[in-house]
Amino acid sequence: MRSLLILFISASFLQVSPAQTEFTFKDTQSTRPNIVMIMADDLGFSDIGCYGSEIPTPNLDQLAQGGLRFTQFYNTAKCHSSRVSLLTGLYCDQAGGATLSRGATFAEHLGDQYHSMMVGKWHLDQQPTDFGFDRYWGHLSGATNFFTGDNSFRLDGQPWNVPTSHKEKPFYTTNVITDFAIDFLSEHQTKNLKLKTSNSPKPFLLYCAYNAPHKSCTIHTNCDYKNQNQSKNWSCSTNFVEVGGATTIARPLHGTKHAHARTLNAGRSYA
Fold it and tell me: 79, 92, 115, 139: which one is catalytic?
C-alpha cells in the first residue's frame, strides 16, 4: 500500500501540516509516496482550529494531529510571490518572479516519475501545463468571483467556460476546485488499475491551490453559517454584507494588528 503525504499550506500566513496515511493505490514495488499539497490563499495563521481558531476545522485539525505543525515559518507576505517560492523552493526574485524563468517547479523536478496534477489558482505567467503539470483545471488570475468566475479558467491548457452550475450544484469556485481534484484522482486510479500488470505504477502529485479565503469570504444567503455564527463572541469584529444574492463575511484576519479590508466586486471596502 503506497503512503500518502498531505501538506496543508497557507499564504500569506503560512503553516504546513504534513501527515502520512494509507491510500488505496497498491504499489508493492515502490516506496515513493503519493503527494497532496493544499494551499489556502491569505488565510490568517490562527484561523484553523489547531492554531486556536474559534472556527471549527475538524478535518484540518485531524491532519495536524497526525502530522507536524510549524510554529515558525517565513514567506513573502504576498500570495503571488509566496506561491513562486512554494513551487520552486527559491526566493521569488531568484526564481525569476512570475515568469519562473530561473526556477523549476516541483512538478518539473519530479518529471515523468510522477503523474502531476493541479487544480485552482495559478497567478503566474503562462499555465501550469507549461511547467511540468500533466493535468490542470482552474483560473490563471490572481483572484476570481466565487460564483461567476472569470475568463481565465482553463482545463489542460484550453479555455473553460464557467457554467452557472456544476455537478447539479450552483457553481462555487471552492467546491468545483475540490470536484476536479477528486475527478483527477479517480482518473489516475482508473489508469493505474488498467496498468496493474506494470511493476511500478506512477505515484501522483496533486497540488490544490484554493482561491479562498482571498478577497471576500462569500457564502450563499441561505447558508446556515450566518445564523449560527453571527451571535458568537468573535475575537474581532464580524460584518455580514449582502452582495448580489450572497453574503460576504468581512472581518480582520487573526494575528494582524490592523483590520484587513476586503474589497468586493462592487468596489466598496469593508473591514
Answer: 79
